Automatic annotation (TrEMBL):
Lineage top rank: taxon: Eukaryota
Phylogenetic classification of the source organism: Eukaryota, Sar, Alveolata, Colpodellida, Chromeraceae
Protein name listed in UniProt: Uncharacterized protein
């Protein structure tokens, strides 16, 4: 997909995301951090940065190849107060978004009692999956030409 910063900065991604409430974008090629657009907010998670933190590598060395891979999760700004999202990198290839919706449940006595519904959304990032796919497509095309 190319660097997400370029797509967001140029506005080419904004029009595509207009009708989307929650989006997961793989291969973002940017460091871990918060991401904001005109209509969405979220976080980007870098696979390589996570791996270096777990291994305890010095911060200067950690910045070297941080712009590879990654997964970005964005939620529509108008839904953030309703969904109360939390973002978390669960593992090297697994990102979790938890949304909570508070509702009132009517009990038998006519009283309302608040309760929370939770939904866990997982985004799986397969390291080098896109490049492997590209290589297999090229191989198939060469076989067809022969």
């Amino acid at each position: 997909m190319g660097p997400l910063e370029t797509k967001l900065g140029g506005g080419s991604l904004e029009s595509w995301l207009l009708g989307v409430d929650i989006v997961m974008i793989p291969e973002t090629c940017m460091p871990t951090g918060k991401v904001r657009t005109a209509f969405h907010s979220g976080e980007n998670f870098s696979h390589m940065e996570w791996k270096r933190r777990k291994m305890g590598v010095h911060s200067r060395a950690a910045k070297r190849d941080v712009r590879t891979g990654g997964m970005c999760i964005l939620v529509r700004n108008s839904l953030i107060p309703v969904l109360h999202p939390t973002w978390e990198l669960v593992g090297p290839d697994l990102v979790k978004l938890t949304v909570r919706v508070q509702e009132k449940k009517r009990r038998g006595g006519g009283k309302d009692s608040p309760y929370t519904r939770m939904l866990h959304i997982f985004g799986v990032y397969l390291l080098h999956a896109n490049s492997d796919y590209r290589g297999s497509r090229e191989r198939i095309n060469k076989e067809r030409e022969e």
